């Protein structure tokens, strides 16, 4: 599951994770970080970019471990990012049948709505890799949109955006629940991730039935 998540988020290829240190496959794209350390089930896995020199590893590992030991909302240096990875294993507080009454698929006929939602975003959202593309439309206005920010042959990573004046009305929750169901129907794993300091996003994930399976920190270089 960790491999599926990392590959979906960073669009990279990893070997099977069966040890504590693995390296991104050299023949594929490389991530912007040098090291990503994930903590799950009481163990840690270090994922190294292929070009990291051996003499750099000790210092990078020390810094990432220090970041993981900090409280979730504590600040880190700008080159370190801490994230929480979640998968859907519980029932959402909003039933799927209710969510599907609020949310609908967005098609080419909705391009003007998407453009009004976010100028210049039509090409991005309607790319095949963003499917399933779902939205909440109220009185001719797109208020919330859910899509696959990353997509692989095994999993999809959720991207969710809601207009500021339409938040806290349950629209993002409905879109998240409907999107996850649509992804699962394809036989893919719907993932959700957020910065460890993003309390609002993590509350949305929990309401949608997602639970934490890994906490990670990565350091760019």
From TrEMBL:
Xref: Pfam families: GNAT_acetyltran (PF12746)
Residue stretches making up the N-acetyltransferase domain: 91-221
InterPro entries: Acyl_CoA_acyltransferase, GNAT_acetyltra_YdfB-like, GNAT_dom
Coiled-coil ranges from the UniProt annotation: none
Signal peptide: none
Any one Gene Ontology molecular-function term assigned to this protein's record: acyltransferase activity, transferring groups other than amino-acyl groups
Record's protein name: N-acetyltransferase domain-containing protein
Taxonomic classification: Bacteria, Bacillati, Chloroflexota, Ktedonobacteria, Ktedonobacterales
């Amino acid at each position: 599951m960790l491999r599926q998540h990392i590959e979906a988020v960073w669009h990279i290829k990893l070997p099977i994770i069966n040890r504590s240190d693995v390296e991104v496959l050299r023949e594929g794209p490389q991530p912007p970080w040098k090291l990503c350390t994930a903590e799950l089930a009481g163990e840690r896995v270090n994922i190294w970019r292929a070009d990291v020199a051996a003499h750099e590893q000790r210092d990078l590992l020390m810094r990432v471990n220090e970041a993981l030991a900090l409280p979730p909302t504590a600040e880190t240096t700008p080159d370190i990012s801490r994230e929480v990875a979640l998968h859907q294993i519980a029932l959402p507080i909003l039933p799927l049948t209710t969510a599907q009454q609020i949310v609908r698929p967005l098609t080419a006929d909705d391009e003007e709505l998407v453009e009004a939602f976010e100028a210049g975003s039509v090409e991005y959202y309607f790319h095949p890799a963003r499917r399933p593309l779902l939205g909440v439309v109220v009185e001719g206005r797109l208020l919330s949109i859910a899509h696959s920010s990353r997509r692989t042959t095994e999993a999809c990573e959720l991207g969710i955006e809601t207009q500021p004046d339409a938040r806290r009305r349950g629209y993002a929750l409905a879109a998240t629940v409907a999107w996850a169901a649509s992804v699962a129907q394809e036989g893919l794993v719907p993932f959700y991730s957020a910065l460890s300091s993003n309390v609002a996003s993590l509350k949305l994930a929990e309401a949608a039935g997602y639970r934490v399976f890994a906490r990670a920190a990565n350091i760019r270089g």
